[in-house]
Amino acid sequence: MIDRRVAKARSPIRSQPLQELDTIAEIPKEEYVLKCSSACAGCSDSLALRYVLKAAGPDTVLVIPACCTSVIQGIYPNTAFNVPVYNIAFGAAAACASGMSNAFRGAGKKTNVIVYAGDGGTLDIGIQAMSGAFERGTDFLYICYDNEAYGNTGMQRSGATPLGAKTTTTPTGKTDFKKDIDGIIAAHDPPYMATAAAAYPQDLFKKVQKALSFRGPSFIHVLAPCPPGWRYSTEKTVEMGKLAVKSGIWVLYEREYGKLSIGAQSKVAMKKPIPLEDYLSPQGRFKGIDPKNVEILKQRIAKNFAKLAAEEASS
Amino acid sequence: MKKIATGNKAVAEAVKQVVPAVVAAYPITPQTEIVEQIAEFVTSGELKSRYIAVESEHSAMAACIGASITGVRTFTATSSHGLLYMHEMTNWAAGARLPIVMANVNRSLGPGWNIWAEHTDAMQERDTGWLQVYVSTVQEAYDAIIMAFRIAEHHDVLLPVMVNLDGFLLSHIMQPLDTIEPGDFIPPLSLPYAIDVTNPAGYGGLTGPDQHFKFRWDIERSMRDSVTVIEETEKEFAKRFGRRYGFTENYRCEDAEIIIVSLGTLGKETEVAIDLLRKEGIRAGSMRLRWLRPFPDLSLLKGKQVVVIDRDYSFGRGGILATEIVAQTKEDVFSVIAGLGGQEVTYEDVADFVRKRRVGTEFWFGVNANV
User: Do B58 and A5 touch (CB under 8 A)?
Assistant: First the structure.
């Protein structure tokens, strides 16, 4: 006989109906990210995941490639997550989820299959498998939590690292732009896609519930500030996410069957963004950034605002 | 039911009998006919499977893994570069203890591009924890696929199985095929650790050295246990369906002084060579190795002059099969490297290897170099 090769969660699950919510107090109390995870202090990956799983409920399987979450879940034989978690190789999350979703649907099960992957596993090594899964109309939710570098391995640059940000492989700041993964996903025309931020859990919760209500592939891109990687103090994690939205470098929106709706917080930012420097200066990774790059980032923010506003107006 | 089929069609027919819930595959020459035929069966409703037309072999194996862990039967097929492209995931499938069955149509590796038969592709998967069987006829390809599911899914095994058939030499050759109704020869799959949302668990997460070591040993223990499971399965298959298979297929070995060991279709060519040699008074026999993993007991070779034909090579070391045989028997062999890149090797060539044998040396048929 073989050993049982699965790690056990510490407490049993409770059933939880999906619900509408108006205030954060209405978010379900059930916890699926349990205490004693191995997350860093101030980690917004685990903060976001907490609300993702509250929204998804217990009939959910997480598929995670190599990423910070592979560490956060804890060490065998324990797991910090109270839903089944399937770990898979770095570039294979969407393909694995594709097989899993087909197996569940073939067996008449409605179990949510959620890929929870970092930006490296999404924008870089996992992009082929993800593109294939979206093109095939896989019934799953793909969530990319974006801390804009390979955080798990000590902050090397990824396709998601923004211009000017220092990482261990871009010691003087990145000279290329952040890859527009949302544009790439949009080109696949999924039924639902959205951006979100760990700093806005209510918005994230609603978007996850909405995404799971669609048949077919859906995508949520979550900004996940990282204290050790971005080099800011741990208590500022929520503030960093809010500054990102208020400065417009991160825009909250959703696209439902191609129809774009920009989030209220981002609409405010589009009318009157706070200075980008307010977002950049608390972060060690932008220390000493070339002022020319700050100007380029500002121009790109304005261009992105104009593009999104035009799309929303026309859709 | 009697019919005529290619090796590839036979594989697809076998898959149809076993009804995997999910087939995820990517086309590659010379495997394409397998996936085309399965897609056709699924489209026509003859096969109640979900066919996932993935964008790569890496994703084919990943999708099989994702499906398999929910507790359903899965199948894929590939060849050559496709097999190598999924190499990361073949390791994952075995490490995750998933009874995935795969047909691999043996083909050489580039560069330069060469689509013809060679065993180096599958040989590069030796150390992954997959069971590997090599077949020599259309009928055997069919039977091996059916048995592979039973072996893989046995609770003493729970490891993936790869069925190897030679590109073109078998994949595209038409031979008679007798199809069967496996019935309860293939019991429903019961995966003891299938995902259960009412009993959440983590799979494949961070594992420390002590536990990791235990899991590796567990793979090896199951690989050893698989020997009995293979024997029992082949015995039961013979009882029910009348066709007998073993770890090796031996031809005129009883009184042989010289034994030629080979894999796949070369084994059939060798049997003809044996008859020719016997007429010349050379007491030769053929041993066609069927299972490479688990590696069988080859004590029959002890004290014989052994000629090993490798349609593969490990650069800087030698013919892979020859190396494995020498490691087990502790006796020198005459190692022949032949058939690389689909090079034609006839029974007359094989007879000639035996006539020219120089035990303890290596002979490259392609360049006629004895080294």
Answer: no
Topology of the domain covering B2-241: Rossmann fold (3.40.50)
Which residue among B97, B195, B206 sits closest to A71, beta carbon to beta carbon?
B206
How many H helices and E strands in chain B?
11, 17
CB contact under 8 A, B201 and A8: yes
Q: CB burial class (10 A; 0-12, 13-18, 19+) of residue A63?
A: buried
Query: Tens digit of pLDDT for each residue in B163-185?
Result: 999 999 999 999 999 999 999 99
Cβ contact A79–B218 (<8 Å): no
Q: Is B44 on the interface with A (CB under 8 A)?
A: no
Task: Evaluate the omega torsion of the peptide bond into residue B285 and state whether it is cis, within 30 degrees of 0.
Answer: no
Interface of B with A in 88-107 (CB under 8 A): 88-89, 92, 96-97
Question: Per CATH, which fold does B248-370 belong to?
Answer: Rossmann fold (3.40.50)
As a whole number of angstroms, the distance between CA A148 and CA B100 comes to 36
In chain A, where the domains are located: 28-314
Q: Return d(Cα B69, Cα B27) in angstroms, integer.
A: 24
To the nearest whole angstrom, how far is the Cα of A40 from the nearest Cα of chain B? 16
- Residue of A8, A100, A109, A135 to mutate when probing chain B, most B C-beta within 10 A: A100
A160: which 2 tokens? Answer: 């998601």
Task: Match domain A28-314 to its CATH number in 3.40.50.970, 3.90.800.10, 3.10.290.10, 3.30.230.10.
Answer: 3.40.50.970
Using the beta-carbon criterion (under 8 Å), do B50 and A89 form an inter-chain contact?
Answer: no
Q: Which two tokens stand for residue A206?
A: 């609603």
Element housing B80 (H / E): helix B80-85
Same CATH fold, B248-370 and B2-241?
Answer: yes
In the predicted model, what is the mean pLDDT of chain A? 93
Delimit the domains of chain B by residue range: 2-241, 248-370
What digits encode the pLDDT tens for the residues B273-309? 999 999 999 999 999 999 999 999 999 999 999 999 9
Structure confidence at residue A19 (pLDDT): 55
Over residues A109-132, mean pLDDT: 98
